[in-house]
Design goal:
Strand content: 5-15%
Strand order of the largest sheet: 8-1-10-9
Shape: globular
Distance between the termini: 58 Å
Largest sheet: 4 strands, mixed
Helix content: 10-25%
């Protein structure tokens, strides 16, 4: 009896956490159930991979001005609010950070000054072993067959367990309705509502119609995207030819975003 009552309270507690989260229209649902059955509708020219990965050549991104068009491209396409006055309520899919904030496990007292002061782009790492997926009680966050860690806004109850599980701070929570803070509304991508978690999706909707991620297109060659398990892909060629690092690699999540330094 006690165990049954405890189980009921646990379920009730999770439900209560999501009372403020209203369902959000998801433009990617191709019919059928959400969660594991949820998928992005694939066009005839859709790009496919076993594990999508990204390589960022930080040598080509020397100043904050170099990063601005990349961040702006992502913000515009994905209806990310950019005019929220409270910094604690910022929603970020891709953003700039200092080396010591990005690579907390790769610091030393005599780091090359040029690298140390170089701006770094951060985003969801679409880990091969994502802890956020295991933490989500509703399967609102899940991993696609192509390695992309997705968000189903319909299923998100706002419990933020995935945010606590993510070691990279790659998820944002909509503490308030983000729609009034969207400067230009892209009708082809769904807007979200208060109480929903969101993050970078590697532009899954663009891959489905044969396009590269918006940030990659806006990077002027500083970012590459491809199949990590295709030895002839651009990302694999870059990994062979350059020394790269990843964020918090020792945690075992296997991040799919690599940085050339």
């Amino acid at each position: 009896m006690k165990n049954s009552r405890r189980r009921f309270l646990q379920i009730a507690g999770v439900s209560a956490l999501g009372l403020g989260a209203k369902p959000v229209l998801n433009a990617f649902a191709a019919g059928g159930a959400a969660g594991p059955g949820f998928h992005v509708a694939q066009g005839e020219s859709a790009l496919a991979a076993k594990q999508w990965a990204m390589v960022i050549d930080t040598r080509k991104l020397q100043t904050a001005a170099d990063l601005e068009p990349i961040i702006e491209a992502c913000n515009k396409i994905h209806n990310i609010p950019t005019a929220i006055e409270n910094k604690n309520h910022e929603v970020m899919w891709i953003w700039e950070a200092h080396y010591h904030n990005a690579f907390t496990d790769k610091t030393n007292n005599f780091l090359n000054e040029e690298v140390e002061h170089r701006p770094f782009l951060l985003l969801c790492n679409h880990c091969e072993n994502p802890p956020c997926v295991r933490a989500c009680p509703t399967q609102a966050t899940f991993k696609n067959a192509n390695g992309i860690v997705m968000m189903d806004f319909h299923r998100c109850i706002g419990c933020r367990f995935c945010m606590a599980a993510c070691p990279f701070g790659a998820r944002s929570f909509n503490f308030r309705d983000p729609r009034p803070f969207i400067e230009v509304n892209n009708k082809e991508f769904p807007t979200r509502m208060k109480g929903v978690v969101e993050k970078c999706n590697f532009c899954a909707e663009r891959l489905a119609v044969g396009k590269m991620p918006a940030c990659v297109e806006a990077s002027n060659g500083a970012m590459a995207f491809g199949d990590l398990y295709d030895e002839h892909s651009e990302v694999r060629e870059l990994l062979k030819e350059n020394y790269t690092i990843r964020r918090k690699q020792t945690l075992g999540t296997e991040p799919s975003v690599y940085y050339i330094v």
